[in-house]
Specification:
With 139 residues, the chain is of the alpha+beta class. The chain has two domains: 83 residues, ATP Synthase, domain 1; 48 residues. It has two helices and ten strands, in the order ββββββββββαα. The chain has a five-stranded mixed beta sheet with strand order 2-1-9-8-5, with no helix packed on it. The chain has a five-stranded antiparallel beta sheet with strand order 4-3-6-7-10. Strand 1 and strand 2 form a beta hairpin. The radius of gyration is 16 Å and the shape is elongated.
Length: 139
């Protein structure tokens, strides 16, 4: 069994990363899960949150994802993200404004479908804000 697991992060636009790592922690819909080499195969939905990439016992990369799917095999963890953004690139001010704007859009929603769409975007924006807040205090 290899010591590393191949971590791939794919967004709709491109392959964002493909690298051997010691461990990756993914925000699964049913809770965070860590993937090491030799992990049992599984598929999971991913909730909006932060993926932590480890080298040894140290986090070397943190990426916000807006949801998606993760496929895990014994040698690989592939995350197909709806949207992915390095945690360091999140502009808190912009996200706070986005949350404010989406909250107003929610009040103005005229149908259940429109309300559901805005609520989903608002959940992602709030998760991004939480990630930015946690990211500034991490390490």
């Amino acid at each position: 069994m290899a010591d590393k697991v191949e971590f791939e992060l794919v967004s709709p636009e491109k392959l964002l990363t493909s690298q051997p790592v010691d461990m990756v922690v993914v925000p699964g819909t049913e809770g965070d899960f860590g993937v090491l080499a030799g992990h049992a195969p599984m598929i999971s939905t991913v909730r909006p949150g932060v993926i932590d990439v480890y080298e040894g016992d140290r986090i070397i990369d943190r990426v916000f994802v807006a949801g998606g799917f993760a496929e895990v095999t014994e040698t690989r963890c592939t995350v197909l993200a709806e949207q992915a953004l390095p945690l360091a690139d999140i502009d808190r001010g912009k996200v706070e404004q986005e949350v404010k704007d989406l909250s107003e859009d929610l009040d103005d929603a005229k149908s259940d479908a429109e309300r559901a769409e805005v609520e989903a975007k608002l959940a992602v924006a709030r998760a991004k804000l939480d990630a930015a807040s946690a990211g500034s205090t991490a390490h």
